[in-house]
Amino acid sequence: MTTSTRGAAKTPAVLVLEDGRTFRGRAYGAVGETFGEAVFSTGMTGYQETLTDPSYHRQVVVMTAPHVGNTGVNDEDPESGRIWVSGYVVRDPARVSSNWRAQRSLDEELAAQGVVGISGIDTRALTRHLRERGAMRVGIFSGDAWTGVRDEALLARVKEQPEMTGANLSAEVATKEAYVVPAIGEKRFTVAAVDLGIKGMTPHRMAERGIEVHVLPATATAEDVYAVNPDGVFFSNGPGDPATADGPVAVMRSVLERRTPLFGICFGNQILGRALGFGTYKLKYGHRGINQPVQDRTTGKVEVTAHNHGFAVDAPLDKVSDTPYGRAEVSHVCLNDQVVEGLQLLDQPAFSVQYHPEAAAGPHDAAYLFDRFVSLMEAERA
After folding, report:
1. Calpha distance 67→141 (Å, rounded)
2. 358 included as an active-site residue
3. What is the pTM of this model?
4. Least CB-packed of 191, 221, 366, 377 within 10 Å?
5. Are 266 and 238 in contact (CB under 8 A)?
6. Omega before 361 within 30 of 0, i.e. cis
7. DSSP-based three-state secondary structure for 100
8. pLDDT 10s digit of each residue in the chain, 382 long?
9. Which one-letter DSSP state was computed for residue 98?
């Protein structure tokens, strides 16, 4: 990626998809070039949390909401220490920030962190194209990266980029050193959290429930997990293809063998699926946004949930499955397309969901899942 930040708003830019379709607009954020997988997010708010979600590593995010940037950027809402998206695509960026918490504008933040974007294009047409053709590789070019370069040459650059299938990315976004998030108030439990791309609000939600969270690198071994003497083990969200995550799958199988209470979200759900013997597959265009309807099949309740995943677990919806660790069933399902959104074991304390119950950004419908994890640890202790 090469970037500059001068005069971005007036600089022409072009977005080139790997199937050859192009969209011309204006540079937004940094000027230069960037590559990634083109995906779309349906959230109307929460763009700062989206941008800083490590699960978006190596993805160019198209916002379906037409007007983006109204509330600016602050230092309290990021979910990690940096912006992780490879590029950003908006239709109508806000000219000014209008929120009492704003400390700077969104385009200033994108430019400061070297994130190349494009604005002024028909994001509805682009989203429809991705829904029909599927998520695909993309490049955004502006300034010297586009000047005098033929579209055929830009398309060739895009096709040179690696695909998301087969990408092993968790270690690139996870913490390199273990750290502790202390319990808020009285400490009740200790949890070992394997960071595959964890968002900052997730250990905070556990800390609110009296849990001391030991966040471990993606490369953590079972010995590292049990060195903290955990009451429960958590596997986080993260980017990439779950088919490459052999290390975390092996660690999870060790946790299942010891029957330690276990909770996984997003990538952690896919890891549990693999640990139980199910396959995973790439969705055509994935689920991204904060308005995805999911049914908890254990209660019948329908939740509006926050999603960011391009892969899913291939498990049967209509029966209980036998696994090496006891009986398992699909606990949650997406009502839009019947994709598996959660798994649970019936003979030991382990479950997972494919979405983001930490609600940053997004609805709070799924906060009960942290309480369910606490209940598993309480029952095990009793």
Report:
1. 22
2. yes
3. 0.95
4. 221
5. yes
6. yes
7. coil
8. 555 544 566 899 999 999 999 999 999 999 999 999 999 999 888 899 999 999 999 999 999 999 999 999 999 999 999 999 999 999 999 999 999 999 999 999 999 999 999 999 999 999 999 999 999 999 999 999 999 999 999 999 999 999 999 999 999 999 999 999 999 999 999 999 999 999 999 999 999 999 999 999 999 999 999 999 999 999 999 999 999 999 999 999 999 999 999 999 999 999 999 999 999 999 999 999 988 999 999 999 999 999 999 999 999 999 999 999 999 999 999 999 999 999 999 999 999 999 999 887 778 888 899 999 999 999 999 8
9. -
Residue position matching structure tokens 């903290």 = 228
DSSP per-residue codes, 143-194:
GGGTTT--HHHHHHHHHHSPPSTT---HHHHS-SS-EEEPPSSS--EEEEEE
- Work out the end-to-end distance of the chain between its first and last CA atoms, rounded to an integer number of angstroms: 54
Asked about 214 being catalytic, the answer comes back as no
- Catalytic one among 266, 287, 309, 341? 266
| Cβ neighbours of residue 147 closer than 8 Å, sequence gap 6 or more | none
Cα separation, 56 vs 15, in Å, equals 18
d(CA 69, CA 48): 9
For residues 303 and 283, give the distance between their C-alpha atoms in angstroms, rounded to a whole number. 21
Q: How many residues does the chain have?
A: 382
Q: Which residues lie below 8 Å from residue 124, measured CB to CB, with a gap of 6+?
A: 64, 66, 91
| Structure-block tokens of residue 142 | 């502006």
The span from the CA of 9 to the CA of 299, in Å, is 50
Task: Single out the residue of 256, 204, 260 nearest to residue 376, CA to CA.
Answer: 260
State the Cα–Cα distance between residues 134 and 281, nearest whole angstrom.
Answer: 14
Tokens of 198: 């964890």
Contact 202, 265 (CB under 8 A): yes
Task: Point out the catalytic residue in the list 57, 129, 287, 356.
Answer: 356
